[in-house]
Request: fold
Amino acid sequence: MKRISFFLISVILFAACQNEEDPSDPEQQFIDTKNVEVSLILPDNSTLNLSELTVSSLFTNKEDFINGIASVDLFDDNAIELVYATNAEENIVFMNLINPALTSEVILDSKTTAQSLVMLHPWVMNLSVEARKEAYDAIALMPEFTAYHDLILQGINSGEIDPLASNPVIEAIGNFQHTMLSRVELSKNPLLLEAGEENVSLTNKLSSMAYTLQLYDVNNEPVGEEYLVEGVNKEILSWSTIGGVVTGNFDLFQPQQKVFSTPSENQVYTLKADSWAGDASWRNGATISASIVGIVSTTLSTVMKNSSCAFSIGSFFYGNTSTVIQQMTNNELTISQGMGQLIASIGNTSNSLHGIINSCPGNYSFGSQAFNQAIKALSLIGNLENGALLFFNIVDIAQYDSQIDFCFEKTAEEVIECSDKMSGEWNFEFINSQCVAAGTITFEEDGSLIIENPLSIEGFNEGEVTSSYTLNEGVLEINYLRDYDLCAAPPGSPDFVDVIEQLTIQVEVDEDNGFQGSYTYAYSGDGIKTCNIQTPNCSGEIVVFQ
Reply:
């Protein structure tokens, strides 16, 4: 029996090695391995040759069966671990996902293989050990399981060299998963900034990604040190709660917050939160790669995320997948396409990944061949579209911006949130209205704006112009008032009667880097009637574009 020692240093403590806290004297936990008996039960009338099948685990490679019985070593932990049997061509034929803490005996047959194949999918990455066991048991109770199991049985008995990788089997897995899961649209605003006279707080409300935080002054120079806000832990503790998550209830998860002191100098500050800068890049890399490996071994996933391996593993993973991650962030790849490429990257680099894990402090003495074979099992995953909602780490890459900027201004009296700024000259056009015309809006550096509009009446003794705009979360609102002194009233009087021109615009950013929305355009004042001025009053749709 092997004794495995590894340091359960939290990711935050490990970052101490990167000049945060001192991680000396960390709590150490020892995890034994245990020997488990494996019984292989061939299907009725099977033509498989038992002598050509061997059983493996992370710590056992290709153990022969004797009268259908063999044994493997597993982590002795409350976990989910893969045990599998391969044929002479080293392709998986049978498998089971078990909790070693609950049993010393494992059965491999067509039913356990069918159940495990459904679980061999990224939708399980966010399930706790207990929730995975509940889901595993629930699979066999579903009405559709019998027909699905029959297809898996046919695949095993087909005589194909790689029976579980055949198209009918992969399709059957995907179709069955589709009966279990669905998708919802998620919010795109995972972070919340609150700035006060003493403290600034950044709360991660929704994203499982960590973000590196850096404050910048008005000259875009860094202010103070980098901070990090952790990703939201979206582990689902019980399968019974999955229905709420599928329908979009994320109140089950605890937000993460980072608080730091407000700078003393009065000026405008920008806080940039970036999930792929600084410590966030390797933390997120370690989390995602460990979550993928955790499909076949939750214990190994814990080792990868929480031990002093995290920096090496996370940096290695991000170095190999940064292009894919960038494409997902830019919506150039769908979630399923990106997930497929990330899984493929783990498989293609499994030898190097095994070397990194085994070089970490502690004794991770599982064989490279067994590790590579376990990772290869991920190639049996069916349709990645099914259950995409639960790929939290992967969904959040595509769903949320990798960099999110916030702005606040500190004055002698208060700290206020900045509104976004517009600049330059923009065109606008009225559409679908009797006011068919175009004009320009010039946004000045001081926050004022100038509107030139062909509909403006020819006035004289032009009075005061009052204009303002706000741009918040992609919504641009403009209010523009202009006074005209149009004519004497009564006739012969030296006094003039006011007419007010008013243009109100509210538009939202569209896909062409412009704005589209609604407007109202009107004139008011006693001068309209007194001076018999014909002026347009209308409303409708408007586009604002460069």
Q: What stands out?
A: Confidence is low (pLDDT under 50) at residues 1-29.
